[in-house]
Amino acid sequence: MSETRDTAGQGGQDGESPATGPRTDKPTLADRVTASMASLSEAERRAARALLARYPTTGMETVALFAERAKVSAPTILRFVAKLGFSGYADFRRALREEMEAQAEYPLTRPHVDGKTAPFADFARSLVTTVENSLAMASPADIERLTDLLVDERREIFLLGGDFTDPAARHLEFHLRKMRSRVRLFSQGLSRRADELADLRKRDVVILFDIRRYQQDTILTAEIAKERGAVVALFTDRWMSDVAQVADIVLRAQVDLPSPWDSLIGLIALVETLALSIDARQWAIGRARFETIEAVRTKLMP
Q: What mean pLDDT do residues 87-101 have?
């Protein structure tokens, strides 16, 4: 199951496999914006950052409103859109609408092939590609920034996963609590989570996992955390949760596969990469904690 939104096509149409459904390697508009950054002028980069900060909402607004949010001129927005390969602003908005429609799907609305199994080798290749795409979307600078925050033991760390992404959040929490203290999982119960949010202090770190079929309680948790002065980091999909509008760090992963079901494999790859980064930075300190944990574990479970 998933926290989910993707495209339902009809098996056997152009670009699709009748056995596995629609191909999922088409880059999103956010991918294209990120890839084009180096070729943009400074004003156009401001437009790009404004779009990514409130993606895709800003792109669905008028040229004038988009320009106002980015603090650039309307002609700059049109030049930015042209550099992304669109013939005009209407063409750009049409592409965004198609992405938003693709986000609305979940297993009941995606194609299933009764009585058939997708070829194992083909699906195995798609899993490898999903990991590669997810790691390619991650900025090394963002991994480094998040590592800096997580090794700072003056900061308490709070994590929250959704209905589908909770295992990814727990996997990161496992690594963090082995290497440092003051790591907590937010409760899934909202009444208790309110108590936990009240404990947040300025400079604490809140890490949220939210993929398509984005959860409103996760978005509200992010907004409250930001209001309380916490640093917010988001693990999301290629279409980006609305949490991105308040997040200080956003890491995106591919979650769609040639399958009716979304996958956590891209998110887990990012979590493992972050855990390795923290270990490389923290092992000199973390080793003593790990040895203490093992000594206690031996006494508790002889």
A: 87
